[in-house]
From TrEMBL:
Signal peptide annotation: 1-22
SUPFAM superfamilies: Galactose-binding domain-like
Record's protein name: Glycoside hydrolase
TM region(s), chain numbering: none
Domain Glycosyl hydrolases family 2 sugar binding stretches: 790-871
Keywords: Hydrolase, Signal
């Protein structure tokens, strides 16, 4: 026993040391930062049934590391049938031993480990008894007339609500009387009260239970969902983990919480008490309005705004901050998906160490050749502006990382190409996200037949995927991008206030869960969203701010500081909004008085909420009356206050010009960008998501030596500058970094592709040899012309998913051009290229081109191209043959529309090198 205890202490010490080592400062050598594990893409790692063992973990972790992943996020879920004997109970001693093994092994391989503080989602489990479970408001109505007695007991009628607690009983008279009858209810539920006159409606409010169970729970994680709004319930929940951990750090970098999907949790037992303390009046006297069906009454909207603000406070303090404090005691961080929560998303994201957004579904990009099947389109496209809520919280809070659950339902199962992943990831980068998490990778034992164990809602980023041999292409690209996007600090000049009270001020419904899937309701119609979209398109950079953030902000040398570790902002913008608290307005004016520039698109019209309404209205009106504007140019009104300036302008961009805030005109070309600033200059990340190739000269707002850095090939060279304009060439679907450096010393110029000379079509016969995959390896083929291998005269090829190697040769009469471009044209789906025995690299994404001049020679040349295709054709064949490959507990396996999955009716997808292949000389 003593030896075992000594080993446990030694292991935990090692894990703690490894965690500390992982958090060392990033080093830079040369042009690209040294790639560390935090810069690489990570993946959510599904542990099905907790059926994990050291031997298989050892194998798969090495495969993950070799493929270029930086870390794993353990999320245990339901298991595969037939493997029940291998299941481990969540947080049992056996499970803890395997966690320690995983962390230790991962660290030796250069991988990090995050862990879900639970199984499946949302938080809950066997430690959550009904009294601590997610709670909902249940109301019942009774009617009494003068002299009548209530004959029934005041008890909840809804079935399975044995733990429901009566919280209030309020009577409403016909003449507007309101009486609290709570003290008149006897122990048996009888009401000891009778009205003297009139007719009375009586409303009983109960704290009932949603009875929601943990979704997709793993063995040992089953149970009720937690009441996130109640601190004592959260403490009970976390105690199970503290006990399993022995109160000691586990080497887990970060604890994770998925999006808030606690359905119907409209209440918590302390809500009346907290409401009265924070809002200043008794919500129990307003049960009738709170639960009524009137969706047009302005006062009911105000009441519900107050209710939603109270929910926000409870979730922020009792869960988010509480959970984060707990993690910090274990020397770990928190990573939270705040979207879907009934609260101010900016504050909830900001209360954790790593704010995390998510993308769900696929976006439309007009990149030629980029496949987007009709069956892959969800009801709501991913919205980059939604992702900026998480990145804004990171930026304004001085946090290094903003992460995203990425590629969730990007396409139908088994049909996702790397080309489809690339622009979706780039869209996240442009929104300020710099820490990609794949959704996801299912842990699968070696004895599970192909395709192995799979999660029902993910892009299959695992070693059984036929694309896996070339996953390094995508992973290395993301790592290079993130190595820069995690360096320095964000460079956003504008801070835009998010008018949360306009969102909350709705008379319909109760809680307001601000979901990714409902942005058409709560985000898209707002002036805030429309202004943000317009500013982004015009070339401005910004983050979002909440009332709480502004309250703690200060001004230093005319710049707005939101946090000592955050980059400051030059201007605060207040979009058109109906409601603004007098306290927030006072703080905005105070910031201006201390030297800040504040732009109002329009002045607020009213205050939010119901408490002390007329007095607060008078306060707002008096403050607005002090803003004595003078008319300026272009219809812009000005008010100078203290050391700063307040502008009032419907056209915000004209106001920004007035205070010398310049947009980046590069967006006029169709390019999108994001900037990071360093001690010596800035990085520009440029992306071409237009349908056209771009060859242009760009004006940048910063000057210095400009390096072009290609994150796909890792090539670097000095940019050409003429009249202070930088020349860039970006094909549709490509990206690059511009490093603007005040102390740059690089001499090697970037080689531009100026004028195409002659092209060589590689039309010699091709030999095609299949090296790995299944269900069977097809025979070798000799091709006079490149076509999809599924059309060749071998029935095995229509079902084949795997790797085919093409070899051929060509003649180059002379090698005199400055550069040569290899163009593979159509590739289904990724290609690794060798020329004359030298590896060119992985061409994994549209436009499937590479610079190959240094590999060529005059005369005879050889070329080898290894191509991997999708899993789709093999899965189709298995379903046609009715081969059983999916057999899971709980939800079995569904398609993108959450119907039973069946690929038997799919068309065969094109596969292989389809070309035509050419090499073009550029002088």
């Amino acid at each position: 026993m003593q030896l075992q205890r000594f080993c446990s202490v030694l292991l935990l010490s090692t894990l703690t040391f490894s965690l500390a080592k992982a958090q060392k400062p990033v080093k830079n050598t040369g042009s690209w930062p040294v790639i560390e594990k935090q810069m690489k893409p990570w993946t959510r790692w599904w542990w099905m049934g907790n059926a994990v063992d050291e031997q298989n973990l050892n194998l798969v972790l090495k495969k993950y590391a070799d493929a270029g992943l930086g870390g794993v996020e353990i999320t245990p879920i339901y298991g595969a049938k037939g493997f029940e004997k291998q299941y481990l109970q969540f947080l049992s001693p056996e499970w803890m031993n395997i966690l320690h093994y995983t962390v230790n092994k991962a660290n030796t391989l250069g991988l990090g480990v995050d862990m879900n503080t639970g199984t499946g989602w949302p938080f809950g489990g066997p430690q959550i008894k009904p009294e601590n479970a997610a709670t909902k408001l249940i109301t019942q109505q009774y009617t009494l007339k003068a002299g009548e007695k209530l004959t029934e007991a005041i008890k909840v009628k809804e079935a399975k609500q044995d733990f429901a607690q009566l919280q209030a009983l309020t009577a409403y008279g016909t003449n507007g009387e309101v009486i609290d009858l709570s003290s008149k209810v006897q122990a048996d539920g009888s009401l000891n009260w009778s009205p003297n006159s009139g007719s009375w409606d009586i409303y009983a409010a109960f704290a009932g239970k949603t009875r929601q169970m943990v979704k997709r729970a793993a063995p040992g994680g089953e149970g009720f969902t937690l009441d996130h709004l109640d601190k004592s319930a959260v403490d009970v929940y976390l105690k199970r983990f503290s006990d399993a951990f022995g109160g000691k750090p586990q080497g887990v970098r970060s604890f994770f919480n998925d999006s808030y999907e606690v359905y119907g949790a409209t209440w918590t037992p302390t809500l009346f008490q907290e409401f009265k303390k924070n809002r200043g009046y008794d919500l129990a006297t307003h049960i009738k309005e709170l639960t009524g069906k009137d969706s047009t009454n302005a006062n009911i909207a105000r009441l519900k705004s107050d209710y939603r603000e109270t929910m926000d406070e409870l979730l922020l303090h009792n869960f988010t901050q509480n959970w984060t404090n707990w993690a910090h005691q274990l020397k770990s961080e928190t990573k939270n998906q705040s979207h879907g929560s009934p609260g101010n998303l900016l504050d909830l994201y900001g209360a954790v160490d790593i704010p995390e957004t998510e993308t769900f579904g696929s976006s439309y990009f007009p990149i030629p050749g980029l496949r987007r099947d009709a069956g892959d389109i969800r009801n709501v496209d991913p919205d980059p502006m939604m992702c900026k809520f998480a990145s804004s919280a990171a930026h304004t809070g001085g946090k290094k990382l903003a992460s995203s659950e990425t590629f969730t339902w990007l396409t139908e199962h088994f049909k996702t190409s790397f080309s489809q992943c690339k622009p979706e990831a780039e869209q996240l980068f442009l929104a300020g996200i710099n820490h990609i998490f794949y959704h996801g990778t299912t842990n699968s034992p070696t004895n599970a037949p192909w395709p192995g164990w799979l999660f029902y809602a993910s892009v299959e980023m695992n070693p059984n995927n036929s694309l896996w041999p070339q996953a390094q292409g995508l992973n290395n690209y993301i790592a290079r991008c993130q190595s820069i996007l995690q360096s320095g600090k964000p460079d956003n000049e504008l801070l835009i206030y998010w008018p949360i009270y306009d969102v909350w001020n709705k008379a319909k419904g109760l809680d307001m869960a601000l979901k990714v899937h409902d942005v058409d309701e709560w985000l898209h119609p707002t002036a805030f969203y429309k202004l943000s979209k317009a500013l982004s398109k015009s070339g401005y950079s910004f983050d979002f701010a909440s009332d709480r953030l502004l309250k703690q902000s200060t001004v230093n040398k005319a710049l707005i500081s939101t946090n000592a570790a955050a980059a400051p902002y030059q201007v605060l913008i207040v979009p058109q909004c109906e409601l603004l608290s007098p306290e927030t307005l006072d703080q905005m004016i105070n910031l201006a008085n201390n030297g800040a520039k504040v732009i109002f698109q329009a002045l607020p019209k009213d205050v939010p909420g119901l408490n002390n309404l007329e007095a607060r209205r008078a306060q707002l009106k008096a403050t607005l009356a002090k803003l004595i504007f003078t008319d300026g140019a272009n219809g812009i009104k000005q008010f100078k206050v203290g050391a700063g300036l307040i502008l009032l302008a419907d056209d915000v961009q004209k106001a920004l010009s007035l205070v010398a805030i310049n947009r980046e005109t590069l967006t006029d070309s169709g390019l999108q960008f994001i900037r990071r600033k360093t001690t010596t200059g800035k990085y520009y990340y440029l992306v071409n998501h237009t349908a056209k190739d771009i060859d242009t000269e760009l004006s940048l707002n910063d000057e210095g030596q400009v390096l072009i850095m290609d994150p796909q090939s890792s090539n670097v060279g000095l940019a050409a500058i003429r009249d202070k304009k930088v020349r860039v060439q970006l094909k549709s679907g490509e990206s690059l970094f511009l490093k603007v450096d005040q102390n740059g010393t690089t001499k090697t110029p970037w080689v531009y592709l100026n004028k195409a000379a002659n092209s060589i079509n590689l039309n010699q016969p091709w030999n095609l040899h299949f090296t790995e995959g299944g269900p069977e390896l097809p025979a070798d083929q000799q091709l006079a012309k490149l076509v999809s291998w599924t059309t060749l005269n071998d029935p095995k090829l229509q079902a084949f998913s795997g790797t085919g190697v093409y070899t051929s040769s060509f003649n180059l009469s002379s090698k005199t051009a400055r550069e040569y471009i290899l163009n593979l044209n159509q590739v289904d789906e990724s290609a690794r290229v060798w020329i004359n025995g030298q590896e060119v690299g992985i061409l994994w994404s549209i436009p499937f081109q590479a610079r190959v001049g240094k590999y060529l020679k005059a005369g005879h040349n050889t070329i080898k191209i290894e191509v991997v295709n999708l899993m789709a054709n093999r899965i189709r064949d298995m379903d046609i043959k009715k081969i059983q490959w999916r057999n899971y507990h709980e939800i079995n396996f569904v398609n993108i529309n959450y119907k039973d999955f069946d690929a038997s009716s799919w068309n065969v997808m094109p596969s292989g090198l389809i070309g035509p292949v050419s090499i073009t000389a550029f002088n």
